[in-house]
Write a structure and sequence with these properties.
The chain has three domains: 60 residues, Nucleic acid-binding proteins (OB fold (Dihydrolipoamide Acetyltransferase, E2P)), CATH 2.40.50; 65 residues, DNA polymerase, domain 1 (Orthogonal Bundle), CATH 1.10.150.20; 66 residues, no CATH class. 49% of the residues lie in helices and 18% in strands. Strands 1-2-3-5-4 form a five-stranded mixed barrel. Helix 6 packs across helix 8 and helix 7 packs across helix 9. The protein is globular. 41% of the residues are buried.
Length: 219
Amino acid sequence: MIGRIAGRLIHRGPDHVMIDVGGVGYIVQVSDRTLAAMPGPGEAVALYTDLLVREDLLQLYGFPTLLEREWHRLLMGVQGIGAKASMAILGTLGADGVGRAIALGDWTAIKAAPGVGPKIAQRVVNELKGKAPGIMAMGGTLAEATGAAPAQAGPVPSVSPPPPAPTVSAQAEALSALGNLGYAPADAAQAVARAAGEAPGADTPALIRAALKLLAPKG
């Protein structure tokens, strides 16, 4: 199993990159969002990878963070979602966006990905909503463990830059704090996701305050 590739970028294709690792060129499929963040040819690059194995195919898929790779694996477990659809969803929303959409039950956001219809989008939300809190909480741990961040590069005209969003660790810390206060994981995840969507760039304390207001009894 190839879990990570680090080397020198030698080619950029429309949906893939080629990375030279010790004289061997690995072709790695990536999303539009990841491709837009890749450095120029000849520069150092690293991607976490997932290997798709079929009778007639061995294909690597690359992700800038471990969190995004985990979402890819979960998405691939949904009936009707293949690697292409998963990469389209992640390319449209990013790891944080996928987490927010699923936690909020916002299947229309999932449907915005190319090639994903309403029935499949609803199935993604329904099947993964219960797993969203665990993945969101995992995000902070993965970010701290790796200290990794996506490579930076100039924007690609065909890819719209994503809106600012709270860091993965801020959302994970807020989710953990709400859990310690006794809130159910699903309710906490939904409140944190909504707070993150309403206040892009908010830090952990701000997310917790906003989420608590959303969770407060109405009356």
